[in-house]
């Protein structure tokens, strides 16, 4: 610290004697050494023997203030450092927890949700692949892609259409029931073309009588038809016909990935399975077959069918107002939609028709009597309305006794709007 000489006075004319009388013992103290000669020692300030001038207390006051400020600064920095450390610890802990939680969530999502969902239709011999979120949604106003020109027998018309099949090129095949024919509508076509029947109602090999369902065997491109009133399942291949199964009240058809054919017999209240090419036997009962009833091992007027990749069978149990699932080789089924009597509540169905299921276990049902399409998840007590449900009508957001259902490979939903003699396409919302 720089040493300052004591003040001699503010008046330069003051004489030396008067100034000498004001010199203190501090100024003449033999203990003082300049800082340059006393670097290793703590400097001491000696009080004057007489007087209490502020001049003599000022250095001590300054040092005290500096010491206090230094102490406060040190304490403040210490507290701030502790506070910052706690914040960093909290952030680190939170981040670690978040990472662990995110990792667990990601692992759970990876193990339980399939981002690429395989969809198959009950009338399809191929697997349709599409990217499907957990809960798909569709535009509520549909596009008419077939028919829609009133009831009639022209090539741009239908009369009570029912079954539907869509191939990989988005071509639509329709069982045109009361015109006794199968019609194919090419993608974006303005009218269809007859590919089976169309020769009037009859039981000749080139005729059909109230065909209910149609599937296409992709392996040989043959057309397989449930020819209801003729009590036969008939195959058309290049305009040549052959009866595959005879003497059966066939209502619904399905084919699985291995080529097995499934047929619902609404009079015997059962579903039977045949191996492709082996139709001489009576087939194997795979659902129902225990008489008419509402027990879990019974069916009452089974109609539409869907078979998944595990060969589980979904059956529309029409007069029991429910959809039943029969696992392969099971002795009884379980209710997966409806089953609470006829009605319009979300846990009920009325005249259920077309059914289709995706790999996430979501079951889509044409709730014909309520003019809506429902989605049910297995194990849930009620379903939800997917499209329709706006009352019976002809508007683009309405249906009238919907029947067959199908998806294309993009996930668009097709509905056979039977009462309006048309096929409606509900586009998926991506």
UniProtKB/TrEMBL annotation:
<keyword id="KW-0325">Glycoprotein</keyword>
<protein>
    <recommendedName>
        <fullName>NHL repeat containing protein</fullName>
    </recommendedName>
</protein>
<feature type="transmembrane region" description="Helical">
    <location>
        <begin position="60"/>
        <end position="83"/>
    </location>
</feature>
<feature type="repeat" description="NHL">
    <location>
        <begin position="398"/>
        <end position="429"/>
    </location>
</feature>
<keyword id="KW-1133">Transmembrane helix</keyword>
<keyword id="KW-0732">Signal</keyword>
<keyword id="KW-0812">Transmembrane</keyword>
<keyword id="KW-0677">Repeat</keyword>
<dbReference type="Pfam" id="PF01436">
    <property type="entry name" value="NHL"/>
</dbReference>
<dbReference type="InterPro" id="IPR011042">
    <property type="entry name" value="6-blade_b-propeller_TolB-like"/>
</dbReference>
<keyword id="KW-0472">Membrane</keyword>
<dbReference type="InterPro" id="IPR001258">
    <property type="entry name" value="NHL_repeat"/>
</dbReference>
């Amino acid at each position: 610290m720089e040493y300052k000489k004591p003040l001699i006075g503010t008046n330069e004319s003051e004489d030396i004697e008067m100034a000498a009388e004001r010199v203190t013992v501090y100024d003449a103290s033999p203990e003082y050494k300049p800082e340059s000669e006393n670097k290793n020692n703590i400097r001491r300030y000696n009080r004057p023997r007489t007087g209490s001038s502020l001049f003599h207390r000022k250095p001590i006051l300054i040092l005290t203030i500096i010491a206090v400020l230094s102490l406060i600064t040190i304490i403040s920095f210490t507290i701030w450092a502790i506070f910052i450390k706690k914040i960093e610890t909290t952030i680190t802990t939170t981040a670690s927890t978040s990472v662990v939680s995110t990792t667990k969530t990601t692992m759970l999502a990876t193990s339980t949700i399939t981002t690429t969902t395989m969809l198959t239709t009950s009338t399809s011999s191929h697997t349709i692949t599409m990217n499907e979120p957990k809960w798909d949604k569709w535009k509520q106003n549909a596009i008419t892609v077939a028919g829609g020109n009133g009831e009639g027998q022209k090539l741009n018309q239908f009369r009570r259409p029912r079954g539907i099949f869509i191939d990989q090129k988005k071509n639509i095949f329709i069982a045109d029931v009361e015109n006794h024919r199968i019609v194919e509508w090419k993608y974006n076509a303005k009218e269809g073309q007859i590919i089976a029947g169309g020769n009037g109602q009859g039981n000749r090999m080139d005729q059909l009588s109230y065909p209910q369902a149609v599937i296409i065997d992709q392996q040989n491109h043959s057309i397989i038809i449930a020819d209801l009133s003729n009590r036969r399942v008939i195959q058309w291949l290049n305009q040549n016909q052959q009866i595959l199964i005879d003497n059966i009240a066939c209502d619904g058809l399905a084919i699985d990935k291995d080529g097995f054919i499934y047929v619902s017999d609404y009079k015997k209240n059962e579903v039977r399975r045949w191996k492709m090419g082996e139709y001489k036997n009576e087939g194997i009962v795979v659902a129902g077959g225990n008489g008419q009833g509402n027990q879990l091992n019974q069916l009452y007027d089974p109609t539409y069918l869907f078979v998944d990749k595990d060969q589980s069978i979904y059956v529309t149990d029409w007069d029991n107002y429910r959809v039943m699932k029969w696992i392969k080789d099971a002795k009884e089924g379980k209710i997966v939609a409806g089953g609470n009597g006829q009605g319009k509540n979300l846990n009920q169905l009325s005249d259920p028709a077309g059914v289709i299921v995706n790999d996430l276990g979501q079951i889509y049902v044409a709730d014909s009597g309520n003019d809506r399409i429902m989605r049910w998840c297995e194990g849930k007590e009620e379903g939800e309305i997917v499209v329709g449900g706006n009352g019976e009508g002809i508007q683009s957001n309405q249906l009238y006794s919907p029947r067959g259902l199908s998806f294309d490979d993009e996930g668009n939903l097709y509905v056979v709007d039977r009462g309006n003699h048309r096929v409606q396409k509900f586009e998926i919302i991506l």
